[in-house]
Design goal:
96 residues; mainly alpha; 3 helices; 64% helix; elongated
């Protein structure tokens, strides 16, 4: 009963990667990861679970894509902070 690349498996791998790379900065991405998890659960129910109506599925899918885009931006910013050794400091002076 091995799920090779199902959405839930991919999400679990993503969460593990985020935690291992960002450590304590993971909290900065947690709300978006929670939104992604809710979207995955709604769009890809467990076997025997209730599937969404086509229009609702489309709307949820669109929302999930938007949330993933936002998560990508947040993760990039957190990666920069982690690599520079800043754990939540504001951007350096000069707008960079």
């Amino acid at each position: 009963m091995k799920e090779l690349q199902g959405p839930r498996t991919q999400l679990a791998r993503l969460e593990k990667s985020i935690h291992s790379e960002l450590g304590s900065l993971t909290a900065g991405a947690a709300p978006l990861v929670d939104e992604v998890r809710a979207g995955v659960v709604a769009l890809f129910p467990e076997p025997g679970g209730t599937r969404l109506a086509p229009k609702e599925h489309e709307a949820r899918h669109e929302k999930l894509v938007q949330t993933l885009d936002e998560l990508e931006e947040v993760l990039e910013a957190l990666q920069l902070a982690a690599r520079s050794g800043r754990s939540g400091a504001s951007p350096p002076r000069g707008g960079r």
